[in-house]
Amino acid sequence: MNTSQNSFVQYEKDAVYKAIFSRRDVRTKFLEEKIPGSVLARILNAAHHAPSVGFSQPWDFILISDMKIRERIKHSFIEEFQKSVKMLESDQERQRKYTSLKLEGILESSLNICITYDPNKFGPFVLGRTSISETGVYSVCCAIQNLWLAARAEGLGMGWVSIISNCKIREILEIPDYVSPVAYLCLGYVSEFENTPDLERSGWLRRLNLENVVCYEKWRVHQSEQWSDLKDEIARTDFNNKGK
Amino acid sequence: MNTSQNSFVQYEKDAVYKAIFSRRDVRTKFLEEKIPGSVLARILNAAHHAPSVGFSQPWDFILISDMKIRERIKHSFIEEFQKSVKMLESDQERQRKYTSLKLEGILESSLNICITYDPNKFGPFVLGRTSISETGVYSVCCAIQNLWLAARAEGLGMGWVSIISNCKIREILEIPDYVSPVAYLCLGYVSEFENTPDLERSGWLRRLNLENVVCYEKWRVHQSEQWSDLKDEIARTDFNNKGK
Hints:
The structure is a homodimer. In chain A, strands 1-2-4-3 form a 4-stranded antiparallel sheet, with helices on both faces. Chain A is built from 8 helices and 5 strands. Chain A has helices spanning 10-22, 37-48, 67-86, 92-100, 135-153, 166-173, 198-201, 228-243, and strands at 59-64, 111-117, 156-161, 180-189, 214-216. Chain A folds into 2 domains: 12-205, 3-Layer(aba) Sandwich (NADH Oxidase), CATH 3.40.109.10; 208-244, no CATH class. By secondary structure, chain A is α+β, with helices and mostly antiparallel strands. The interface between A and B is large, with 129 and 129 residues. Strand 1 (59-64) of chain A pairs parallel with strand 5 of chain B, so a sheet runs across the interface.
């Protein structure tokens, strides 16, 4: 029995899983409704309470509502998208499917947020970052996921635009060279959340079975007698995932 | 008004924020109690439902209970820790504080999990990864944060061990060169969760004010008349954070 303080009762666990499973990468169905300051402060505070290596909190959140800035960002998306379409020239069917997808909501969403990584914050000695320097930017990604889940709970759709030039983002948002843009996000209330990811629904890719991503004691070892109880549970989970 | 399906009622929102704010990076107070397979399957499934660039699901979760493997990992921690202590030789006070901290729970925790990034999964053309290749590993970090929050809701403490050699992890867990170890995690039931992060409580670093990490339209622009409503909300949030 877990006897810790602050334990979660069943409905609280259910709510956490609901946020995790119903979170979507949103690019369509944004509404015009503005995000109230109180909601925005709550989700930013959630992001700011992410784990960070050595408690370095290396993130900055740039909120962008200015349409002139967003139009410049959109221009970078269009340029990068055109480059990516060319990469599929040898596969016409995939290229057709790819170009039919909506991949960003820069102008339609209520708000854009660029999240950056500053390796110099509280440096140069950052506790826990001495052997693996990438753990700094990994902390920023944890903050992004906190933001995403808090946004979902608040009824806000969020989409990550990654077909974009970081060089252009730096120039447009006046980010110095030593700081890395990590994510460019579009947020807003939406008319509905889809039940499954866009790329699964459109047949771009399928969700892998959980059993194929869980390994026992060594990388890509999927067979183990010692772990047979867990393997049964995972088989049940995969069965339930299919039913969703 | 947000009219989306699957909206969250107040107690569900509260539960999501509770998980986010009460999650800790845990290195002490692990109990011997084993993690049931059903709980483990649920939290791994939560991790597997993270967002991923182009739905590439580039993660693998290596579960490690074998104590011989864990002892080899612990040995790598000790080596890397000794190197890091040397880096603080010019600052004796900080060095003393640093060496007094408990920074891992490799042997005491119930389970270790290594999470890896495989850039070849569903490649070479991964939708959305054509301009910024790092988005692949960023997806793995989102999975880590999902795992962390689900674990917290289940009453499981989790700690990220980053003072470790990825080269040694590759060797010990037989991970091929093209795959990157991203995180080495220790999980288990704990006697209690601390109210504040260890590094804040011990006076290593303080939490930044939210107002200092939120920028308006451009990087590190903290003043803006246009955003005065939000700035007021953030000031209120910072006041509440101090009271915690």
